[in-house]
Amino acid sequence: xxxxxxxxxxxxxxxxxxxxxxxxxxxxxxxxxxxxxxxxxxxxxxxxxxxxxxxxxxxxxxxxxxxxxxxxxxxxxxxxxxxxxxxxxxxxxxxxxxxxxxxxxxxxxxxxxxxxxxxxxxxxxxxxxxxxxxxxxxxxxxxxxxxxxxxxxxxxxxxxxxxxxxxxxxxxxxxxxxxxxxxxxxxxxxxxxxxxxxxxxxxxxxxxxxxxxxxxxxx
Length: 219
Known about the structure:
The chain is built from six helices and eleven strands. It is of the alpha/beta class. The chain has two domains: 2-124, Rossmann fold (3-Layer(aba) Sandwich); 134-218, 2-Layer Sandwich (Alpha-Beta Plaits). The strands form two sheets. A six-stranded parallel sheet has the order 3-2-1-4-5-6, with helices on both faces.
């Protein structure tokens, strides 16, 4: 894919490296000359464009007309929102993702304002901290859409209802699919004959209500 990242700091630089390693073509827009220079040296595969993403001409220099995705990750919500609106409304970029720095501003990061996906960092960090304090070993990896569906990871505890059971014999909650099982560092795609064992890590797609049912099965 052709991807533009707005913001070349630690988050933007790390994201650029990951995306390039996955085979994507990446351009990074960074307004600070010293940061742009460091990024160009650290990540020579990226096309680093110095300037502000709130300037349409800078977006054009970065190749916005060809972009499949624009990911906006600066530390300023104002800049992120303006860049998102330009990318979506002026240049019709198919997918616009924007970082939300201040949770109080999250309500503005919507499709009506050009943002397909608003990444609220405070909410994400808070969620993972709460999950980390949860001793029942069910972790939300990702929320999907607006209807509370999610991907969760659940550890099989010894003596739990699923320990030693075949997947086809487990009464999972409605709208729940087991998509992967990790055992001994190896990940397999399971089927109905797959037997869960204590120590396994299962990755499941489910609803919020289903998440609670999974906790009861695995704990």
